[in-house]
User: What shape does this take?
Amino acid sequence: MSTRPRGRWVKELPLSEIIDGLENICNEDWKDTGVKDVEGVKRLSGPGLETKEVPGVTASGHKWPQRLHEMCFMYIGDIGEEQLYDVFKREKNLENLMCQQTNGHCHPKNLKVKKVDDEL
Assistant: This one.
């Protein structure tokens, strides 16, 4: 099936390619992602995140690569490959799905923001 957003035809990916693509993303090594103190708040920092370019030390490695790997597959399991792909095609990101819905991990209701009192 093809859809026609903004005057051009876009070919739908087969489910097998969606699954392979998401598995490849989740299987990244995540070694450059970790936690950084940004204005007194611990924030996730790494490639593709707004905090990547904020000056500071990123505490990466340790448990973070495994945590992110597991969380990535958890989203696939909870939401499903096809729904993730559909949302991404429509919105070009997953932020609303993950952060605006009340059950999203980064929804303000679910955040446990804590000021940093000590060094990372």
